[in-house]
Amino acid sequence: MKETVLGINVNTENYDELIPMIFDRIETKEKSLIVAINPEKIIKAKNDPSLKKLLNDAEFQIPDGIGVILASKIQKGQITSRVTGVDMMMRLCEEAAKRQKAIFLYGGKPGIADKAAEKLRELYPSIIISGTQDGYEKDNEKVIAKINEAKPDLLFVAMGSPKQESWINANREQLHPTIYQGVGGSFDVLAGNVKRAPEAFQKIGMEWFYRLMKEPKRIKRQIALPLFLLEVARGSKKKQV
Questions:
Q1: Number of neighbours of residue 241 by Cβ within 10 angstroms
Q2: Is the pLDDT of residue 83 over 70?
Q3: Disulfide: which of 4, 113, 143, 197 matches 201 by Cβ 3.0-4.6 Å?
Q4: Angle, helix 219-240 to helix 207-214, in steps of 10 degrees
Q5: Which residues of 22-55 are buried (b: 16+ CB within 10 A; e: fewer)?
Q6: Which domains, from first to last, does the chain contain?
């Protein structure tokens, strides 16, 4: 089920509801893209029709960001819990290990995908990682051939958004995997190069505040959140009238 936030579709399901839906698509060979939706992307999509189309064309749009949850509350919607990109990737890897579905990691600086793969094997000993490829290979055909030769069921692409989703959409019809997720800096987190906010911040949806304390220059990006919520509130009032 999906809800619309300022013209962008967002799934209302939580992790436990989404995971079976996603793995069912592997069985039926329905190629599907998972994109993470946050206020920043929604605001950008308002002025960028191609980004709006890219986000709305995805099969799954997960509510990554406390702002999307607050927006849903304002418009009396049904999105009640965050589904972050990095946690969705981890849940998918855990389930893939249980179901013996193969994954492939593509993107990041040389060696980062390999380190991320090592960490995943440590966390989920039965996981099948059919291959890795850094994001610095210029020959796209070589990348496609390597992924197809490995025959993974799930492909995680770490290039930053929306570049990673654009690459997936441009190539997925000639790629073997069924499930695709753009995961931004998740490989760096797994490799230990980037630290996530402490769990206490994650649980209350305040990762953004932790990052702001670490990087004060992010303040310009964070100012967009109240403006985003104000716009949602205005739109909600118009609908009521």
A1: 4
A2: yes
A3: 197
A4: 150
A5: bbebbeeeebbbbbbbbbbbbbebeeeeebbebb
A6: 1-83+209-241 (no CATH), 85-194 (3.40.50.2300)
Residue 18: what residue type?
Answer: L
| CA–CA distances in Å: residue 15 to residues 21, 48, 80, 162 | 10, 29, 11, 23
Handedness of CA 185, 186, 188, 192 (dihedral sign): positive
Which residue is it, tokens 């695709």? Answer: 180
CA 127 from centre of chain = 20
CB of 65 within 8 A of CB of 82? yes
Count of CB atoms within 10 A of residue 231's CB? 18
pLDDT, mean of residues 221-232: 80
Cβ 152 vs Cβ 78: under 8 Å: no
pTM of the model as a whole: 0.90
182: closest CA among 208, 156, 205, 206? Answer: 156
Is residue 186 within 8 Å of residue 112, measured between CB atoms? no
Residue 95 CB neighbour total at 10 angstroms: 17
Return d(Cα 187, Cα 109) in angstroms, integer: 10
User: Mapping DSSP to helix (H, G, I), strand (E, B) and coil, where does residue 41 land?
Assistant: helix
* pLDDT tens figures, 146-188: 999 999 999 999 999 999 999 999 999 999 999 999 999 999 9
